[in-house]
TrEMBL record:
Designated gene of the protein: CHADL
InterPro entries attached to this UniProt entry: Cys-rich_flank_reg_C, Leu-rich_rpt, Leu-rich_rpt_typical-subtyp, LRR_dom_sf, LRR_TM_domain-containing, LRRNT
Domain of life, per lineage: Eukaryota
Ranges for domain LRRCT: 238-286, 598-646
Alphabetical UniProt keywords: Disulfide bond, Extracellular matrix, Glycoprotein, Leucine-rich repeat, Repeat, Secreted, Signal
Family: Belongs to the small leucine-rich proteoglycan (SLRP) family. SLRP class IV subfamily.
Name of the featured protein: Chondroadherin-like protein
Record-level GO cellular component terms: plasma membrane
């Protein structure tokens, strides 16, 4: 609960090399907070509440090699923030709220080799955002909102060897994107929305060895021109059409000795067949003779118009008055223009349409004519109360639909028909009293459903019927008191379930049956009070992250976490009312357990927990609230409290190692060793 790191907070520790300030709820780092720490190698400020960094907050850290800022609330980076970190090798800014990178954002990081920017909301990178990073070798930009490949920006970091751009919603990339990275070896574009890839998209990446295109929407791919060292092409999870038009690809893979893991999606007779197991003669155009096949193959080859025709086409592009239509990115925006009806007349190749913060209560039938290539549609804060039947007609490529912060209380199946590929539906902060299950059946590809902060009071049987593709379900901040058994059953591939900040009085154990892929369960902020035996048994073999913080928990049964051992990585129990907790030896793979903010009573009843915690190489945050002599002490370190307990001596004998032949202390092998080597004078805090 530090909140603030004041100026010169560590000035009396000039030999400090490692400083760990994770999970301290830090909201502000004052200018000059770390002055005097000239030998510091690692600074970990992850999992705090920082929303900005003052200009000189990091001054005095001239030896710093690694800076962890993951899991904060940073919304912007000011040029010069990192200017004093000339020795920095790794900067981690993942899991923040960044939407934009300004020019020279990382000026001064002349030795930085790895920059992590994943899991933000980045949609715009300034052309010189990555300038001044001559040593950068790895850049992680996956899980952002990039609508097109920012090739010119990325090419500023010419030394890149590994570039991770997966889980971004751009639909096309080509040579015109301007990606020029002569040393690039691995490029990840997996799990995006790619529908087309120009053969010369990577013509200026001659050393590219591995290209990851898994989980996109590619049904065809031409032989790639330029990356002569390509040896691995990952295509798994694309709906590849294995007909005569795929012959050039198959022949190129064999000729260039490129390994591929793709499989056919069509035609039916070849569905599931591995691409590298096919012969050219297997690839036929149904019902076509030899001449017709040649014509079809020729028609599939890309035609690149000359520059003159491109300019003429661009000059003639339509765009509604009061809107901006950018031909390069294929984005059109009418954000906050006071519009009272949905405008029409956008370019037919528009891929992102932003109509946020206008006022049209009704979205009429066929509201978006001619936009068959539209991928992302933004309708937040528009006062929408109704989508008419056929409102999304013709949007066959739509993947993202944002309807957050409106006044919707219902949806019909007819209103969503016409967008069969829709994967991400955002309905948070509307007026839904129940899940619009009947309407959602019109979306067979729905992957992620956001219904946070509505007025739902239950999840009933049939609400998710037909949603076999659903992976992420967000129901936080509603009034849910019950999740009916079987309600989640249709979503057998569900990976994330967020039920936090509802009114559940018990874990919906029966409703968790039939979810073999569930990885993350959020139940924090519910009035649970107690956990019974086997509460999470149905998901014990898959669950990795469990959130039970701020749930009023007073009692946890010894068998509450039975079955959770094999895969659970993080357990959040902070800010409850626990005075006691049984030992949890079955949770052998934990990487994080948070017990802070509980009033633990450190008596003999807590001895098993104390013993278990002393065997963990983790910071757990558990402190004693009673007896008064132990108040404020760490449960893990309060050995004096437990010495009088029966069985203490036997437990101590088991844990005490044989004495060393020499009294000389050996260097501590902490969790940071391996990330950075520490000198003989190095100490850690």
């Amino acid at each position: 609960m530090l909140k603030l790191i004041p100026p010169a907070a560590f000035r009396d520790l000039p030999y400090l090399t490692h400083l760990d300030l994770r999970h301290c709820q830090v909201e502000l780092v004052a200018e000059g907070a770390f002055r005097g720490l000239g030998r510091l190698l690692l600074l970990n400020l992850a999992s705090n509440r920082l929303n900005a960094l003052p200009q000189e907050a990091l001054d005095g850290l001239g030896s710093l090699r690694r800076l962890e800022l993951e899991g904060n609330l940073l919304e912007e980076l000011r040029p010069g923030t990192f200017g004093a970190l000339g020795a920095l090798a790794t900067l981690n800014l993942a899991h923040n709220a960044l939407v934009y990178l300004p020019a020279m954002a990382f000026q001064g990081l002349v030795r930085a080799r790895w920059l992590q920017l994943s899991h933000n909301a980045l949609s715009v990178l300034a052309p010189e955002a990555l300038a001044g990073l001559p040593a950068l070798r790895r850049l992680s930009l996956h899980h952002n909102e990039l609508q097109s490949l920012p090739g010119a920006t990325l090419s500023q970091a010419r030394g890149l060897a590994r570039l991770e751009l997966g889980h971004n919603p751009f639909t096309y990339t080509g040579e015109e994107d301007g990606l020029v990275l002569p040393g690039l070896r691995e490029l990840r574009l997996d799990h995006g929305a790619l529908q087309a890839l120009d053969p010369r998209a990577f013509a200026h990446c001659p050393r590219l060895h591995t290209l990851d295109l898994r989980g996109n929407q590619l049904d065809a791919l031409q032989p790639l021109q330029g990356p002569g060292q390509l040896r691995r092409l990952r295509l798994q999870g694309n709906p590849l059409r294995c007909d005569c038009r795929a012959r050039p690809l198959l022949q190129w893979l064999a000729r260039a000795r490129v390994r591929s893991d793709g499989a056919c999606g069509e035609p039916r007779r070849l569905r599931g067949e591995a691409l590298d197991a096919l012969r050219p003669s297997d690839l036929r155009c149904p019902g076509a003779g030899a001449e017709e096949e040649e014509e079809e193959v020729a028609a599939a080859r890309p035609r690149v118009p000359d520059g003159t025709s491109k300019e003429k086409a661009g000059a003639a592009r339509p765009c509604p008055r009061a809107c901006v239509c950018a031909p390069e990115s294929r984005h059109s925006s009418c954000e906050d223009r006071g519009l009272q009806v949905v405008p029409r007349g956008f370019p037919n190749d528009t891929q992102l349409l932003d109509l946020r913060q206008n006022h049209f209560p009704l979205v009429p039938r066929e509201a978006f004519p001619g936009l068959g290539q539209l991928v992302s549609l933004h309708l937040q804060h528009c006062g929408i109360t109704e989508l008419e039947a056929g409102a999304l007609a013709g949007l066959g490529s739509l993947l993202y639909l944002y309807l957050s912060d409106n006044s919707l209380s219902s949806l019909s199946a007819a209103s969503l028909e016409g967008a069969p590929c829709l994967g991400y539906l955002y309905l948070e902060r509307n007026r839904f009293l129940q899940v619009p299950g009947a309407a959602l059946r019109a979306l067979p590809s729905l992957f992620s459903l956001h219904l946070q902060e509505n007025a739902l009071d239950r999840l009933a049987l049939g609400d998710l019927a037909g949603m076999r593709a659903l992976r992420w379900l967000y129901l936080s901040g509603n009034r849910i008191t019950q999740v009916s058994p079987g309600a989640l059953g249709p979503a057998q591939e569900l990976e994330k379930l967020h039920l936090d900040r509802n009114q559940l009085r018990e874990v919906p154990t029966a409703a968790l049956e039939g979810l073999p892929a569930l990885l993350e369960l959020q139940l924090s902020g519910n009035p649970l009070r107690a956990l019974q035996d086997g509460a999470f048994w149905p998901v014990g073999r898959s669950l990795q992250h469990l959130f039970l913080n701020s749930s009023g928990l007073e009692q946890i049964s010894p068998g509450a976490f039975l079955g959770l051992g094999p895969r659970l990585q993080s357990l959040h129990l902070q800010k409850n009312q626990l005075q006691a907790l049984p030992a949890l030896p079955g949770l052998s793979q934990l990487e994080l357990i948070d017990l802070s903010g509980n009033p633990f009573h450190c008596d003999c009843q807590l001895l098993p927990l104390h013993r278990w915690l002393t065997g963990l190489n983790l910071h757990v945050g558990a402190t004693c609230a009673a007896p008064p002599s132990a108040r404020g002490q760490s449960v893990k370190a309060a050995a004096a409290v437990f010495e009088a307990c029966p069985g203490w001596a036997a437990g101590k004998a088991k844990r005490t190692p044989a004495p060393r032949p020499s009294a000389q202390r050996t260097p501590m092998k902490g969790r940071w060793q391996g990330a950075n080597k520490v000198g003989k004078k190095g100490v850690g805090l």
